[in-house]
Amino acid sequence: MTKVGIIGATGMAGSATFKAAIAAGLDVTAIVRSTDKAKETLGSDIAVIEKDTFDLTKADLEQFDVVVNAFATAPQQAYLHTDLAAHLVAELRETDAPRIIFILGAGSTFAGTGDDRHYAYDDIKEDPANASWQAIPENQLYEFNFLKDVKNVNWVGMSPGQLFVPGELADNILYGEDDMLFDKDGNSQTTSDTMAKAIVDEIVTPSHKQSRFIVTNG
User: Does this model's pTM top 0.70?
Assistant: First the structure.
């Protein structure tokens, strides 16, 4: 049975992924700072590693076939996204297992076409209304740019659409590589259950390596 560790398993993306992985019959462990919170959120009989994410060692990680990084933090500490990616990569240099799946933001996807093709983050930072939280997509863009140069760790990145919100699995899922995706009504949105389904599918049937793909509700 595939063994999966989920960093940040009590957050929106992490909890949805944990539940979807359990439903798919995978052997899943929550990697969290609080066992009590994890068991309250995910069930009293779950497997838990209670540890600060930055204290995870190679020995902690290599017990899994796949590690899902669903880490989330406040905008004031958004730089921790890149710091954590660097820590995990450093622990697993020159390995092929475990595979690490990074949940990235939409800021690193491309918007526009032709000469106007640009990072979605560029649109975010131009709107003053986004100032309170724009550090998160900014730093997840930096995180992805860091990962793109990593050639000796088995990683894959996944980005949602323009909006990433709690919600049920979509009837239709759209997949892409770098450019923002839109449904027939012009919406670019990914619900947490849709992201979770895509992650579990990628765990069960690996389709990407050392690259990022995008998933949205269709």
Answer: yes
